[in-house]
Design a protein that fits this description.
The complex is a heterotrimer. Chain A is mostly helical. Chain A has one domain. In chain A, 73% of the residues lie in helices and 1% in strands. In chain A, 56% of the residues are buried. By secondary structure, chain B is an alpha/beta fold. In chain B, strand 9 and strand 10 form a beta hairpin. In chain B, helix 3 crosses helix 4 and helix 3 runs parallel beside helix 5. The radius of gyration of chain B is 17 Å and the shape is globular. The chains are: A mainly alpha, B alpha/beta, C mainly alpha. The interface between A and C is large, with 43 and 47 residues. The complex binds adenosine-5'-diphosphate and magnesium ion. Adenosine-5'-diphosphate (ADP) binds next to strand 2 and helix 1 of chain B.
């Protein structure tokens, strides 16, 4: 299930399909859902770097998503910056935030990191809500849409957004893939397995974990940057919340940690389900969608800890040792 | 090359290592013996930076590396295996070795090639795609040795790697140690099997209750009355 | 000056609830070595159950303490036996994801059953208070604090003067010790977890007469419980109590003197400062190996 040399065909076919599909099926709602699948997929790949490869469960990714989104929105509204520049600024701020939080709490073992990510996300939201003049407080920010404007990345229909989101997804996937096959990837695998042994081969635990957290933050903030560009609207509750952070984690864990396709599979399964339940159940029973995910999450944790991707994987041919690093 | 000067470590009132000094030269193979609880593993932890020392200094090639942390110490060329083996269980044998090689190698593909050669040298080639958790405990210890060797160290401390091996396997491993030592690496070998230690070590250090009670050639040690009294006399000669 | 004492008093009173919930968390952590990310949600469930029972039976919530405690001891035992226990031998990650999944499950379950609205219980003494030395002690807050104190004293007696309690304490220091005392550790895991859950639920109960009940109410309390446990030292019940009161005070001082909407921020800032400057305090006691 990787870009292995012997069968690059399937990924290429999928990619071709992804490129051609929106040209054939012009269904606005469906396209909207697929775009969501893509950018939530991006967040899940972002999560996998720190939560999967580094084995440090983050429940605060919403803050990086918000950092990306607010950087684009404020950059545009305050300084008339194009979202492209706004996104780059967002990436830098998100990485600095990850560096700051990471260098404090990644030193500690166990659940402290998870806790601190929850707390940090709360802090960022409290700040976003408090500094109303800049952030719009609970009302959030609206980016006025005045028709097609390439500089502002405003388009008349969703097709360009579709390709931007697809591009971001590929970037996220490729980054994840490269990380898993890189020296950093091996170091993270070592740390995940045994911290003492990792030290005995000269691995600086802090450095590697912080690096992973920064990469994770950067990827996630890109998704946020895209989100606000696409939706023209942002508020603290829908981005920088525990719910958002949990959703990101869910997608990655359900799909399968530390696997090339896992986060995408997770997004493919969860986002449509979320849309369906939102469309048909939300008005009747808010929370129904989350209830379903929670049950699936508990079941996956207990019975398929490697996620749904592993179910496909074990159905396929026996794994090569070579793939193990990425798979485990 | 490596100098241990008067190091001590106390665990809540217990002097696990008490004012121990020693020296190691390149290519040297030193045996470290002593009854259970004598402080051998703790001394290893101190030398390699896994525990901070309370007193004393550890100097490698004129550089003071005391309390600099295990990752730093390993990077300076001092590495070890663990008595309670710590291989990377969810990774293949080859990946375990690759991680060792990567300490001084940036390119993963080059590391892979080097790791294959090391797997060969340690007779782990056939198991290279097996997950460490599925190896026997003896193979895992050997794998740890290979991983330590892969970091291209100046000193390797082997903490009871030979426990549970057949005598043929022990002979093979002794040969391997001697071969690697002849390439320039020094060894500190902790082992309970007395004839193994006697046959391989150029020098032997005896610890008892955290203190160094004797040091000398195997012959000196085996005839030292203090050692016989404290240790050999208790019938460990197997 | 009057405002100042009032602020401190309010902090201490809410600190009692934090202490109860956090003590439960630290007990579970100590014995099972599981970080229970659903602690706040068990508290939330305790609030709803109290609300329903109190409305249904027409009984004052504080009189339901024993009943709610029994219900949640049973519930906690089942959750441990059928879910948590399955993951005890697995990596920490797994247990964390499981309790996180449970947290989301309970939150959304209550959302589905009751909707997102804030509910509250009208008790006749809701707005009554006692005036002592210029400081107002609101009746429900005072009662909540008293229940918390009684609960903690009972827990302390249990942990120190019963064989089971001593075994639990021993096992939170060293799991082998308990086995040596001849206590079945599987059973003890169940007991420790259910007591921990009971503490969360009863902590929730004491809030009902003066706090809103809604599905997400446990998120902040769960987080506070962790902050308290971390500040107080893991597995350290006395430390948890002291730091719970401290957190209550910090929160109420921030709300009074900085800004109401930043009261949570004050707590998290202290948490982060402790992480930066006193990490050894966090590691004290357990889990250094
Ligand atoms: N981390 C530790 N904490 C407390 N005591 C320890 C620790 N490590 C070792 N000890 C104690 O130090 C003494 C020496 O142990 P060790 O170095 O393992 O001896 P050896 O390897 O020679 O058998 C023993 O009494 C042991 O119980
Ligand atoms: Mg030992």
């Amino acid at each position: 299930m990787t870009f292995s040399k012997n069968k690059p065909l399937i990924p290429l076919l999928l990619l071709a399909l992804a490129i051609v599909m929106p040209l054939i099926f012009k269904h606005p709602y469906l396209m909207r859902v697929v775009i969501m699948i893509f950018y939530f997929g991006v967040t899940a790949y972002g999560w996998d770097v720190i939560g999967g490869y580094a084995g440090q469960v983050s429940v605060g990714q919403g803050m990086f998503f918000a950092v990306g989104a607010y950087s684009v929105a404020l950059g545009y509204l305050v300084s008339n910056l194009t979202p492209v520049v706004g996104a780059l600024i967002g990436v830098i701020i998100a990485m600095l935030l990850a560096l700051g939080i990471g260098s404090v709490v990644l030193r500690l073992r166990g659940p402290y990191f998870t806790l601190s990510t929850i707390a940090a996300c709360e802090v960022v939201r409290i700040l976003l809500l408090h500094f109303k003049e800049a952030t719009g407080g609970p009302e959030g920010l609206v980016i006025p849409y005045n028709g097609y404007n390439l500089y502002a990345l405003h388009f008349a229909n969703d097709l360009p957004y579709y390709y931007i989101a697809l591009g971001l997804l590929l970037v996220a996937m490729y980054t994840c893939y490269r990380v898993s096959r890189s020296k950093l990837g091996y170091q993270l695998a070592a740390i995940r397995n045994d911290e003492d042994a990792a030290k005995s081969v000269g691995i600086n635990l802090m450095k590697s974990k912080v690096k992973a957290f920064m990469i994770s933050a950067a990827i996630t903030s890109l998704a946020g940057a895209f989100y606000v560009t696409y939706d023209h609207y942002i508020d603290p509750f829908s981005t920088c919340s525990n719910e958002m952070s949990v959703k990101i984690l869910l997608i990655a864990v359900l799909g399968g940690r530390r696997s090339l396709w896992g986060p995408l599979i997770g997004s493919l399964l969860i986002i449509p389900l979320m849309e369906l339940t939102n469309a048909y159940l939300a008005s009747v029973r808010p929370g129904a969608a989350m209830l379903i995910y929670a049950m699936v999450l508990v079941a996956v944790v207990l019975y398929a800890p490697d996620g749904i991707a592993s179910v496909f994987k074990s159905a396929g041919k026996e794994q090569k040792g070579d793939d193990k690093l990425a798979a485990n | 090359m490596l100098q241990i000067n008067n190091v001590s470590k106390t665990f809540g009132g217990l002097k696990a290592v008490n004012d121990v000094s020693m020296e190691m030269r390149p290519q040297e193979i030193i045996g470290l013996i002593g009854p259970n609880g004598a402080g051998k593993t703790t001394l290893t932890n101190l030398i390699c930076g896994f525990h901070s020392v309370d007193q004393g200094h550890i100097i490698l090639n004129d550089q003071d590396i005391t309390n600099k942390g295990a990752d730093f110490t390993s990077k300076q060329g001092l590495t070890r295996t663990f008595q309670v083996e710590k291989s990377f269980k969810d990774l293949t044998a080859l990946d375990n070795i690759i991680i060792g090689v990567l300490m001084h190698e940036q390119n993963v593909n080059v590391a892979k090639e080097k790791a294959e050669a090391i797997a060969n040298k340690f007779d782990l080639y056939k198991q290279k795609t097996v997950l460490a958790r599925n190896l026997t405990i003896q193979s895992r210890k050997l794998l740890e040795f290979a991983r330590a060797y892969a970091t291209n160290p100046k000193v390797i401390i082997l903490d009871e790697v030979m426990a549970g091996l057949t005598s043929k396997e022990i002979d093979e491993q002794l040969e391997l140690i001697q071969e690697i030592a002849s390439e320039g690496t020094a060894f500190l070998v902790i082992e309970h099997i007395m004839h193994v230690i006697m046959s391989i070590s150029q020098r032997i250090i005896v610890l008892q209750e955290g203190k160094k009670i004797a040091e000398g050639t195997p012959q000196d040690i085996s005839s030292d009355p203090v050692v016989i009294e404290a240790y050999l006399g208790k019938g460990d000669e197997a | 000056m009057g405002t100042f004492f009032q602020t401190i008093t309010n902090g201490i009173l809410i600190g009692g609830v934090y202490a109860v919930v956090a003590t439960g968390l630290t007990l579970i952590f100590g014995v099972l070595n599981v970080a229970n990310f659903a602690q706040g949600e068990f508290m939330m469930l305790g609030m709803y159950v109290t609300l329903f029972l109190s409305r249904g039976l027409g009984v004052d919530p504080y009189l339901l303490t024993f009943l709610v405690a029994v219900i949640f001891i049973a519930f906690g035992y089942l959750v441990e036996k059928f879910l948590i226990h399955q993951t005890l031998s697995k990596p920490h990650e797994t247990q964390m994801l499981l309790t996180l999944g449970l947290a989301i499950f309970f939150r959304s379950l209550m959302m589905v059953i009751c909707g997102p609205n804030y509910q509250s219980l009208a008790v006749p003494y809701r707005l009554k208070s006692l005036l002592i030395g210029g400081v107002l002690l609101s009746y429900p807050r005072l009662l909540s604090f008293l229940v918390a104190v009684v609960l903690i004293i009972l827990l302390w007696l249990f942990l120190n003067y019963t064989e089971l309690g001593r075994a639990i304490r021993a096992s939170s220091q060293n799991s082998k010790a308990a086995t040596l005392m001849g206590i079945n550790s599987n059973w003890m895991y169940g007991i420790a977890f259910s007591i921990g859950i009971m503490l969360a639920a009863v902590g929730g109960l004491t809030l009902v007469p003066f706090y809103y009940v809604f599905p997400d109410v446990g998120v902040y309390f769960g987080l506070i419980a962790f902050v308290v446990v971390v500040l107080g030292g893991l597995g350290d019940v006395l430390g948890a109590i002291v730091s719970a009161l401290l957190i209550g005070i910090i929160e109420s001082v921030t709300a009074q003197y900085v800004a109401l909407d930043l009261s949570h921020l004050g707590v998290f800032l202290v948490f982060i400062l402790v992480l930066v400057f006193r990490p050894q305090g966090l590691l004290r006691g357990r889990r250094s190996s």
